[in-house]
Amino acid sequence: MHRGVAAAAFLLVACERDLAVSSPSERPVIASFSPTTTFAFALVTVTGHGFDPADGTSLEVFVPDGTPDVLDGPITVTTPNGTSAPSEQRFAFKGLGHLRHGTAVDTVKFLHQTPGVAMVGGKPYIASLAARGVIGSDGVFVPLPAKPLAMTGTPDGSAAFVGYAGGLLRTGPSGTTSRAVAGIAFRFVAAALDNSRLFAVGEDPLGAQRAFAFDPLTLQQLATRDGGVALALGAAAIPGGKLLVVGTDRVAIFDPASASTVTVAAPAGATCAGPAVAVGSVAVVAFADGTLRSLSLGATPAWDTAISTGSSTPVAALVYWNQGGPTGTNFAAFTKPAEGIVRQFLPGCCATSTSALAGRPRALAWDGNTNSPSLYVANDESNNLDSVAASSGSAVGRVLLPIGLGSAAGCGQGSATDEQNFRFLAVERQARQLASINRDSLALNPPVPLAAGSSAPRSVVRAPDGKMWIAHDRELGTLDGNVETLAATGLAHPPECLLFPADGSLVVTSGSDVSVLRGGARTGGVTLSGPVVQAGIRDDGKAVVIWGDAARPGAWPKTAVWDLAALERAGAPAVASEGSAAYEGFLGALLLAQGPFLLFTWDVGAQAAGSYGVLLDASLAPQKARDALVPEEGRLMSTPDASQIVWTRKRGGDRVLRFVDGYDLNGIRDYAALRVDGDPLGPAFDATGEYLYVPVPERDEIAVFQ
Fold it and tell me: Sign of dihedral through CA atoms 301, 302, 307, 312?
């Protein structure tokens, strides 16, 4: 069906149903219609003539629910006297404007799934797959140019090393260094036991395995050899400044000082699984049947008998520690993610403890404490590091390493969908970058880096024209793909709310200040008597601002409507309201389709507590209060069609997003209640309003509803 004809169909149906138009005497003619883009069930006013014999100059119709492929395009009006020519303007259908079903779609988890744990300065560090960077329990974050594939730390705890496709990174108290090695994906890294070398094993584009030695301070390449195996499954630094590379049917011993690589075949009928670790004068290697074997590292390497690990599941990681110094005891430990265990043992002997952990424990690191040693265990199913006591295996603590998804700024802003790039973006507060998921498939995208040298990000905002804006503490930036360009710098106050008038200017609220920016510079604005609690740009281009009196918390706020020119020169508003003493216990405000809507908990005249919603009319005069179904303090926002209130109780533990239908303020009703697994922070709708993306910081996940 032609789009123009389809668009005309909704106008005709609305006309016949709602206006009972009598037969005109002339063919209808469309001069214009407004708005040219809106949501379902909104009113569109068509002007022209021939609509009605009495006064056929205008026609009001409702937009039906539908899809853009049916409703986009020129419109026509049909009467018994004929059909108008298609309008010169094109109608653009925005969508339903609010959730269609109020049901959960899926949850996207941003899990570190780290390839390793390293101790740096006595603190655990991990390489995060989701955040694409190194995260330390001391708040350190170092971004990586690609997914981390391997991680290790120096034996003395002075630095951590990460391998990725195309290079290596070193980070620690002395600084961060990287080394690009084109065409090599480094899948294993290991630090020499005496800190003299960094070893790495990588794969070139043709699949050939290469072993490298680097200076651990500068990452200068010192040597490279053939890896000695068809496919590297693991690697471990061994005594003598050498590297053990594990293949399926053999191990190779790489010595940077030698031109040749020594290989040792696996025991007959045995297949190596990958993980390996040096324990004194032997290497312990994991096998596919779940066993471990010791390999002597003397002049003639030889395998010892198999060591049972309690099951046939292969181990995923191996670490070693020494308790008591040179005359003390050598221990080793391994993880079995499929079984959820960490098991410790004496090489050549027996298991000493087994720790059962929830999820899939994988990467391990010894904390380096020789007096009271413990192991840090990274989990593939959470962003926590559990620690267990060495030798006894008892739990001794947990370290949280959150990504910190989500943010909440003014006007309900925080996260946003980038419609042009089919993604949802949220702030990663720990990493100071943007988390990204595919808007439709919900697959994890690479994080979006922010402008170099910019301050901490506060929110992501989508402008009406689709451009993505980033609000920082001291800057504003725009996104072009994955590149941020700073549009304004040196802001006096952290921006809280970004408004986008049609004239290309930018209105920014910060505390009690409302500023107009043009070309990245402040050109004017006003300072109010209290902090801004809500603001927006009306369809007529005027700015609506609602602010509170800091000296009277909970009292009725002030409201004003400015022409942009007057706002810019700090002139008088077009209309203003000082408020009323009728209600107190102010909870917040929203700009609904009908106008500013203020929420209170106390009726002064009746001396009664309750939920009171007061609509302000065009002159900002308060109308009769309604039961708004919002009885207590919480975070507030409205749906894109401005017909529903979305709120979450501020008191902890509620974890529910409540939708209140305010399409007809005379009959406000509950629409939906959506439960999430944590405190939702900075939810955002897509452009159609039919999908809601909800960051849940405490679980590092994004819940999606429709």
Answer: positive
pLDDT tens profile 11-55: 443 333 333 444 555 788 899 999 999 999 999 999 988 887 655
Q: How far is CA 341 from CA 4, 290, 309, 360, in A?
A: 64, 13, 11, 8
Handedness of CA 379, 382, 385, 388 (dihedral sign): negative
pLDDT recorded at residue 5? 36
pLDDT less than 70: residues of the chain: 1-25, 53-56, 324-327, 348
Q: Which of 681, 702, 125 is nearest to 399 (CA)?
A: 125
What's the confidence (pLDDT) of residue 20? Answer: 40
- Strands (E) across 227-373 are located at 234-238, 242-246, 250-254, 261-265, 272-279, 282-287, 292-296, 317-323, 329-336, 341-345, 351-356, 361-366
- The pair of three-digit structure tokens given for residue 312, joined into one six-digit string: 């046939």
pLDDT at 326 (0 to 100): 65
What is d(CA 351, CA 365) in angstroms, rounded to the nearest whole number? 18
- Of the candidates 496, 495, 498, 514, which has an alpha carbon nearest to the alpha carbon of residue 506? 498
Tokens linked to 302? 């030889």
What pLDDT, on a 0 to 100 scale, did the predictor assign at position 56?
66
pTM of the predicted model as reported, rounded to 2 decimal places = 0.90
Residue 328: CB atoms within 10 Å: 11
Q: Which of 23, 30, 82, 92 is nearest to 58 (CA)?
A: 30
The CA distance from 204 to 182, in Å, is: 9
Report the candidate in 407, 408, 442, 361 with the shortest Cα–Cα distance to residue 109. Answer: 442
Q: Enumerate the H helices of 316-373 as residue ranges.
A: none
Cα separation of the two ends of the chain? 28
CA distance 59 to 65: 19
Nearest-angstrom CA–CA distance, 43 and 231: 66
Rounded Cα–Cα distance for residues 632 and 623 (Å): 21
| Per-residue pLDDT reduced to its tens digit, 293-334 | 999 998 889 999 898 899 999 999 999 887 766 667 778 899
Res 208: pLDDT: 96
